[in-house]
Design brief:
By secondary structure, the chain is α+β, with helices and mostly antiparallel strands. It has seven helices and twelve strands.
Length: about 280
């Protein structure tokens, strides 16, 4: 209710100044009234535009969120831009035992074909974003894929609603920018060689995709994770982003939820049958 109140106050102020101008015959009053009216109209347009952008982001369906997250995730990690495929996207990861990955929804019309494709592709992964992980795992088993056990969640937030957390005493922060990717590194004042915490965010349009948020085990439970996220959100908003997206590990989900993020869906991942390796098993 505050924004409309400010808008009507602007109109009333412009009329009041114009009336004063009529009474005093002061031309400056008319100029000021026009300026106030113009500023009020522009402010109303801007607030309406921001509300429309926020509503559009909020109403985005799951396949669109999957595509937007995958694009930012790939950009953050230096992978080629994902290509659209029926049901999702294809990402050229290029890692040992993880050469290519499909990220898709659980649409029954396309999921079976993706499972078959992954089974026939060496060093391939399939990550399915779903509201029902238990309903997806049988597809993996029937298709001969090796299911992973990582518990991950696709989460989102309007960046204006993000909780702000300060950097604790005894730490200093380094911020690096490379195109649309901002990296935050936190070091202890006692040992500058050790990275106590860090993370990055990739900004594409109005989307900000947080990635690789980490806290050293020796520095956990000190508020560093929340401070890193707050710093990344500030940088993303300065770059024009209004919506945050990320995939959280089971441990990270509680942290992000406390900052205002909400779960959109769960991720379940499988790979074409192969021995387990030390390759990263998650997306956070």
């Amino acid at each position: 209710m505050e924004a409309p109140g400010r808008i009507w106050f602007g109109y009333l102020a412009a009329v009041g100044i114009a009336v004063v101008g009529l009474i005093t015959l002061d031309p400056l009053a008319f100029v000021l009234a026009v300026a106030v009216l113009g500023a009020t109209v522009l402010g109303e347009w801007y607030r309406g535009r921001q509300a429309a952008l926020a509503a559009a982001a909020q109403s985005a369906d799951l396949p669109e969120l999957v595509s937007r997250w995958a694009r930012g995730w790939a950009y953050s990690r230096g992978f080629p831009r994902p290509t659209e495929v029926p049901g999702g996207v294809r990402v050229e990861v290029g890692q040992p035992e993880r050469r290519v990955e499909w990220v898709a929804t659980d649409d029954a019309a396309t999921l079976g074909g993706l499972v078959d494709t992954v089974r026939a592709t060496p060093e391939a992964w399939l990550s399915v974003v779903t509201d029902s992980p238990a309903g997806v795992r049988p597809w993996f088993a029937e298709g001969g894929l090796a299911a992973g056990d990582a518990k991950e969640a696709l989460m989102s937030i309007g960046l204006a609603d993000h909780e702000s957390r300060p950097l604790p005493d005894g730490y200093r922060v380094e911020v690096e920018r490379d195109g649309g990717v901002v990296a935050v590194t936190v070091r202890s004042d006692d040992d500058a060689e050790v990275v106590a915490a860090g993370g990055r965010v990739a900004v594409i349009g109005t989307d900000a995709v947080a990635d690789r948020i980490r806290t050293d085990p020796d520095h956990r439970r000190r508020g560093l994770g929340g401070a890193v996220m707050s710093l990344l959100v500030v940088a993303a908003r300065e770059a024009g982003a209004t919506r945050g997206l990320l995939v959280a590990s089971e441990m990270g989900e509680a942290l992000y939820a406390g900052l205002g993020w909400r779960v959109e869906a769960r991720l379940v991942t499988a790979r074409s049958a192969a021995p387990r390796t030390s390759v990263e098993s998650g997306h956070d």
